[in-house]
């Protein structure tokens, strides 16, 4: 027994500050990056900015509701969340319900709001997985079959996402799931075998899909076919290069003037790099670094307090934010083939923003419960 310091109620100040800074910066970047395409499509240069503000208000309201739910309730809802995930992934294929955009069947329309189903579905699947790890941790640690069981529904979900197709979301889901299983005590040999199998499957998917193969070839040398398949990446690289050290200044990007496609969604990082330069990139990386590190610290404290569901979920969600941000940046800089993934809290998009804010609310809820447990511990101390 050792003396316990009684912390004040509240939330992680560094984590909240970093999240708030990213959210505000995202609104600013959507306003800047979308002016040309918004004026072309709607006649209003700030069309996408105002829509993003509405998404932000709804997202913060959703986050407040999620934050109010105890983690124990989420843990007990695992099977319901799994059913919800499969319902979302299946309903998108129902004629008249699912909507196709640019050849991808990923969305459903809810009146004025379009939902990309893979975003909430991935969150529900990871919440189910966190609960499964807690319930069946001994089997996961000691048996390869025990490790396979929670991956079977995830593999089925991955097949549905690939059918949309959504390769990027699938890769994030499986990578985060393997990390959570590793932290849950799964053997490295078993995880290595599964990772090798996933790598082989991914290679086959790329080689057997013409559009994925074209993306790979244009990624290796975008300048070879700059007027066709290499256009988007080449324009992104030009934007990043124009930024130099300090950028050309907020609002002064040239590549957003209908040269670079998807300037306000998947390739908003390139516009940010052009307008804020290397220093802006460093600041962005620092903010995401704070989110990831503090998220892992929150998860570690939950693990010490034997709140295993909260810990594994928090580890997974923090990794999701960091991995998706790094993949998006790498794609924009030509380090990875195009994946169609947004930059969390920065890119335009209702589904992405609402899901990320839900993720943030869950992490902050774990932090809140950690502080609540510590503050209400017996005055004599707690076991550590």
Describe this structure in words.
This protein has 384 residues and is mostly helical. It folds into two domains: 200 residues, no CATH class; 113 residues. It contains 15 helices and three strands. Strands 1-2-3 form a three-stranded antiparallel β-sheet. Helix 1 runs antiparallel to helix 3. The protein starts with 12 loop residues before the first helix and ends in a 9-residue tail after the last helix. The relative contact order is 0.16.
Q: Give the termini separation.
A: 8 Å
> Would you tell me the overall average pLDDT?
87
- Counted up, domains total 2
* Count, helices: 15
What's the main sheet like? 3 strands, antiparallel
- Strands of the widest sheet, in order across it, are 1-2-3
Please state roughly what percent of the residues sit in beta strands, choosing from under 5%, 5-15%, 15-25%, 25-35%, 35-45% or over 45%. Answer: under 5%
Helix content: 55-70%
> From N to C, what is the helix and strand string?
HHHHHEEEHHHHHHHHHH
Give the overall shape.
globular
Q: Provide the low-confidence segments as ranges.
A: 1-7, 380-384
Structural class: mainly alpha
Rg for CA atoms: 21 Å
Oligomer: single chain
- DSSP strand count: 3
